[in-house]
Amino acid sequence: xTGSPEYRPMIGLEIHVALATRSKMFCGCSAExxxxxxxxxxxxxxxxxxxxxxxxxxxxxxxxxxxxAVGGQVQARMHFERKNYHYPDLPKGYQISQYAVPLxxxxxxxxxxxxxxxxxxxxxxxxxxxxxGKSTHSAETGHTLLDFNRCGVPLAEIxxxxxxxxxxxxxxxxxxxRALLRVAGVSEVRMEAGELxxxxxxxxxxxxxxxxxxxxxxxxxxxxxxxxxxxxxLEYEVSRHREAIRGGEPLVHETRHWDExxxxxxxxxxxxxxxxxRYFPEPDLPPISVDPDLAQYLAAQVPELxxxxxxxxxxxxxxxxxxxxxxxxxAELADFFEEAVAEGADPKDAANWILGEVRGHLNAxxxxxxxxxxxxxxxxxxxxxxxxxxxxxxxxxxxxxxxxETGRDPVxxxxxxxxxxxxxxxxxxALVEEVIEENPDAAEEFTAGKEKALGFLVGQVMKKTRGQxxxxxANERLRKALRNGSDHR
Length: 489
Ligand SMILES: [Zn+2]
Hints:
Elements: E1 8-18, H1 43-46, H2 57-69, E2 73-74, E3 77-78, E4 81-84, E5 94-97, E6 104-105, E7 108-114, E8 117-130, E9 134-137, E10 144-147, E11 154-160, H3 167-183, E12 196-207, E13 213-215, E14 219-224, H4 227-247, E15 254-259, E16 264-267, H5 270-273, E17 280-281, E18 288-289, H6 292-301, H7 306-317, H8 321-328, H9 331-342, H10 347-365, H11 376-387, H12 393-406, H13 410-417, H14 425-438, H15 440-447, H16 452-464, H17 471-483, H18 485-488
Helix pairs in contact: 2-6, 3-4, 7-8, 9-10, 9-11, 12-13, 14-16, 14-17, 15-16, 16-17
The chain binds zinc ion (ZN).
C-alpha cells in the first residue's frame, strides 16, 4: 500500500462527578442541589479570613470507592493543593484540589458491545477537589448573578488516557462510567443537577515514522454537561479538524466552548487560556494516610460492577444483551428483577414486565422504585397467574396499576374481584354447549364451512362470562364441540 495512512480521532476525557455526601467537602454546609441561592454557605466555603477547612471523611471514602470502581490504585499517602485562579464564582481565589499526588492512579473501564468488540479505556488518575459556585448571566439586565451554594461541594475528577476513537465511543464510555458510579453508590449522577460535567481533549492522528504518531493540535472543549453535547461537540471537532487538514491550514492548541444552540465550538478568549495555577500544598490541611484496612473495607463495599452483572444476566437468566444492559444500567431495576426471579418469576417475563410496566411508570412519574408500594414477590405471583393462563395480560396490567397506586396485593385483587380468567375446560365446555344450543343458526353456518360464525359464538361465550373466559381456550373448545356436534346429539 502506498500513500499516508488515514487520520483517526483520538479522544481523552476529564470527568467531574459530584460525590453523594450530605455536607460539603471542607465545611458542614449542606451539599444539597436546588436550595435557594446563597443559603448553604458559611465562612469556610466563602473563604472568609480566619476560617479553616476540615476534611469530610465521607467524601474521602466515596472517592476511594470511585477509584476502586474504575480499577484505580489508591495511594497510601496523599495531600491537597491549592489551585489558584481568579473568577467571580470562586470567592476564595483558589480551589482546593489534588495535583502532584492524587487519590488514585491507573485503572480501566471496559466497554463491551461497541461495534461488536471489547474496548478498553485506560484511566490515568482520580483526584478529589471542591466545586466552584455558579454564575448566571442575564442578557435582560446585563447582570451576572452569583450563587455560592455549590462552592465546596465534593467532586471526584476522573482523567482518562486518550483511548477513545470516535464520538460514539466517548459517549458509550460516559454511559458505562455513569452506570459504574451509580452502582458503586458514589454519586447519583443526576445530569440535570450538573452532577457530571465533562471536558474533552481531541485531535486527529495517524501513524508516523517509527512507532510515533503525528496529528493536529489538541482542542480542549470545556464543561459539557450532557452526553449528547459531548458527542455533538466531538462530531463538530472531527469535521473541523478534517477541514483544516484538507485546507492545509494549521490549528492551534486551544480551549474551546460548546454552543448548544448553534451546534458549534468556538475558541475561548486567549486570556482564559493563560493558566498558571501556581499549585502548592494546602497549608491548612494535613497530608492524609489511607489505612490499608479501610481501603480494603471500602473496596469490598463496591458491589458487582455492571459489566460482570450484564454477563451474569445473559448467562444465568438467558436474557438478550439489550435486556441485560437496560436492567443493569438502573441498579434498582436489576435488584428488583433478581428478587422477582428468586420468588419464582420466569426471568424473561419478569424482564419484560420490569422494562415495560415498571420502568414506564417510573419514567412517567419521576418516582424511584423505592417510592412504589409493590414488591418483587407481588410481581412474581402475578406473572405466574398470567403464565398459567388464569388471567390475561390486560387484566394483569390493570391490577398491577392499582397495586402501584395503592399497594394492594394484585393477586388478592384478582381473587376478590373475580377477575380470574375461566381456563377450566369443564366449566367452559358447559358454557359452550349452552351457546351452541341457543344459537343453532350460527353453529350450523360454522359446520357448513363459514369460519366467521365461530367469532360470533366465541363472543357469546365471552358475554356469558362477562369477559372472564380465556378467549383462546373458548375458541378451541367451541371448535371441538362443533366438529363433534353430531355425536353429541
Ligand atoms: Zn460552608
